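Appendix B, example 12.
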Amino acid sequence: MPRQRGNGEGSYRKRENGSWEGRILINGRSHSRYGKTKAEAQRQINELIRLSQKGLLFTSTNTATLSEWVSQWIADTVSLQRKSSTVRNYTVIAKHIPQEIGSIKLQNLRPTDIQRLIKILTTKQIKVKPDAPVKFLSPRTIGLVRQVIRAAMNDAIAKNLITYNPAASVTMPRLERKEMKTLSRDDINKLIASEMDEPLLPCIIFIIFTGLRRGEALGLRWADIDLAAGAIHIVQSLTRAAKGFALSDPKTLTSKRMIPLPQTALDILAQQRAKSSAADNPQNLVFAYPDGTPYSPDSLRKILTRILTKLDIPTIRVHDLRHTFASQMLMAEVNPKVVQELMGHSTITTTLGTYSHTTPSLKMSAATTLETYLKPSPKTDTETPEKTDE
């Protein structure tokens, strides 16, 4: 008979999904750790042994539950590092954690629990109007729930509350990229030619010609514009706050950028300047109510829908105006690296991955350029005779 493993000795088994589980008994309590390979599971077990030897292995049975810890992490840690809008978004995302998983204590949480959570969320219905078709959580939202849990668990590891992250290796639902909607050149020209008395029509056209995010456009100040150089500097963004709206730093470090302005955008600024008075606009905003009060992002969305409907243009989101800018730039064969910088993307991979549908024209252009470069020039009738020794 195989001998029974004692306290402090680990055992390993390969699971049905191909991953490995390591088990160890420490101070009379069984611990399980997981890895994609046996070596990875062994490293997890060795880390448990190391923590136990140093007296750092957390074994209390009176710890917070998953939901309690995520809420505490958002309040105590995220709020110190991220913008208020991010804290608010994380709080909303955390509400999707089902009670049967959220009530599990941290040290008892296993990858199988997180996998069960993912399964529950795939069948969770979203509240909609009575006559509307049934809707479920999108794979992207489910991915955000797992992302928040994973980050919270990493913080718990850093504080020695747990020794491994149960959300690190779970199978996620397939994320199907939605087809991007953009305006055509004819649609854009319709908007420019329109003489509708809509207060944010200039802002909408301005976004199409600059690629600004919604908050960046609504938070743009006259102080951020260099008319002499024909450029704007993105240094802040309008975001929703606890009471109303606030101006804060842009989304990422690369979001702080300079954008040169085409003539259409310069004309819009000239028109806006003629209509506004700096004395009546304490926040110095370019696109605002007459008294300087900022427009809400929801107002921009509603006005855009109303304008497109009146002009018989297919309805798109405000963010799709930004997509329109990038797509038109790439189809005009602007260098993708330039487009990345204008959009404020952190990497060119984001740009090319998001707008891959526009890059075939770039590839065809590259093939034509190579053909022209390598193709030999046609011979002329008069050729220089070869030099001889005679």
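The beta strands are 10-14, 20-26, 29-35, 125-126, 135-136, 225-226, 231-234, 237-240, 245-248, 257-260. Residues 66-158 form a domain with the DNA polymerase; domain 1 fold (CATH 1.10.150).
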